[in-house]
């Protein structure tokens, strides 16, 4: 993923946000990727601590990427944002409760989602450029991602002041208010990170220099007096009756913000300021608002005015002094069955096509805790999967319907059966390898019925399906990809979003055309080496470390007893059958014809595999069994 870099270095897990042009705003994918890494490192004895930082000079993270929430929310899809927030808040809780030290380096703007990511860590470092704030009331929302937890613990009435005015804090203020722990000049940060990586010891941070002064600390007595009111109207009256610079500046800021958001924020801080306060208690209360804010609050209007139309003239639901207490109470009512429970998302999944690939994929999803209904025309079953009597029954009530089918015609036939049975906003995730035209046709039909579509052919074979190490090449919308990403993480080791519908199939057939060509070249070379008297071991040792390097040679060597174990060592029993390679090469040449692309090597590879499968002994053998074929043949 280009938006976030995750790696291990020395004794540290290291997460870097890499969207500097977007001020490192958090996307759903970034949250899920960060959480996955944190989960893995928590039990990894080689990782002693975690480092969080970001690229660019302007921001650690200026908040969440809310444009997609606006698009889906205005289209009537309230669940997209709710799912995003559930996943993000779960990650926020994990950061606050993490069993190992996490050191966040908070430079530039740190707002909203940036506070959620870097502000709950065990060691929060700020520098000269740091500007921290919770500006959500300015877009019709409330401080979230655990922001109310920090605000409720701030000294005196600073929580109310910061939450209602969205005031920015420099490094000294951030430490005073409890949003940061240590100040270090930013010139020292590279050396600090390297010391943490090298030692894995938090003591490598050393003694922190004295932080800059905190203007908020000096203003604390007046802020406490001005923001001590019980309700929003009380605070406004106090501010209006003061001619101090702090009061007038605060009043000016608050006059621009959403009145309902400020009233709810104030109530949240008051409710949370108790001895029993915990990060989870704060996040659960915040989620009550998140769940309702698009439908009953000013969030969509706030986004419109701020980043869509950019007119800076939001039309809030309430006047500044006229927020009924009942509206505040409604926002904060318990959600019952919809309450935030911090559990990993479980989905209702339909799986159609339980063959050699589909059955282990479906079983892995069930093993991960998802509820999976399965259907296969041949009656095949998968462990942990509830068998149903039709494809339509598997699709009914499922959030995601996965298909793994032999060809495009069958895909179109199955789609015609399942799409009418699927709920609106459900996802049809097709993992078959089919022609691009069929994939795009099915995607268009899905869109017409209000269903999201992803084409996601796989690479990795039966072994990858069983081991959960497949690679997915995915075409479709960003939103659908984000929703399906947790499933890709269960079924595979990598998912690449290749663009709009059909691009997943395009990537697969291009990849497999290369694979078909290089396997033929590898087999030809071994056969030639044999006849030149060059041992296969010497051939492998040279080519696998030289310019002839390829996956066909290094990972899937067609010569028995040479290199890592492969189907060649099992009498060419298929890992990837020659029949399937012929299918993929035919798809590539069909696509090349449709696109008017010149692919002579792809065409030649297709003809060779056609001869091998249909006229020789290749049917049912691994595609690397081309080697014994070439061994037996001469030049003529």
Written overview of the protein:
Helix content is 47%, strand content 12%. With 636 residues, it is an alpha/beta fold. It folds into three domains: 4-338, 2-enoyl-CoA Hydratase, Chain A, domain 1; 348-501, NAD(P)-binding Rossmann-like Domain (Rossmann fold), CATH 3.40.50; 508-631, N-(1-d-carboxylethyl)-l-norvaline Dehydrogenase, domain 2 (Orthogonal Bundle). The strands form four sheets. It has a six-stranded mixed sheet, sandwiched between helices. A six-stranded parallel sheet has the order 12-11-10-13-14-15, sandwiched between helices. Helix 19 (436-448) links the parallel strand 14 (427-430) and strand 15. Helix 22 (503-531) packs across helix 25. The chain is elongated. The two termini are 49 Å apart. The mean pLDDT is 94. This is 3-hydroxyisobutyrate dehydrogenase.
Any descriptors?
3-hydroxyisobutyrate dehydrogenase activity, ClpP/crotonase-like_dom_sf, 27 helices, alpha/beta, 2-enoyl-CoA Hydratase, Chain A, domain 1, NADP binding, NAD(P)-bd_dom_sf, single chain, six-stranded parallel beta sheet, Rossmann fold, 636 residues
Topology, element by element:
Elements: E1 4-9, E2 12-17, H1 28-42, E3 49-54, E4 59-61, H2 67-74, H3 79-96, E5 102-106, E6 109-111, H4 113-118, E7 123-126, E8 131-133, H5 147-153, H6 158-165, H7 171-177, E9 182-183, H8 189-199, H9 215-226, H10 232-240, H11 245-254, H12 259-272, H13 279-296, H14 299-308, H15 325-331, E10 348-352, H16 358-367, E11 371-375, E12 386-387, H17 391-395, E13 400-403, H18 408-418, E14 427-430, H19 436-448, E15 452-455, E16 458-459, H20 461-467, E17 470-475, H21 478-491, E18 492-499, H22 503-531, H23 536-543, H24 551-554, H25 578-595, H26 600-615, H27 626-631
Parallel strand pairs: 2-3, 3-5, 4-6, 5-7, 6-8, 7-9, 10-11, 10-13, 11-12, 13-14, 14-15, 17-18
Antiparallel strand pairs: 1-2, 16-17
Domain 3-hydroxyisobutyrate dehydrogenase-like NAD-binding: 502-627
GO biological process, one term: L-valine catabolic process
Domain Enoyl-CoA hydratase/isomerase: 13-330
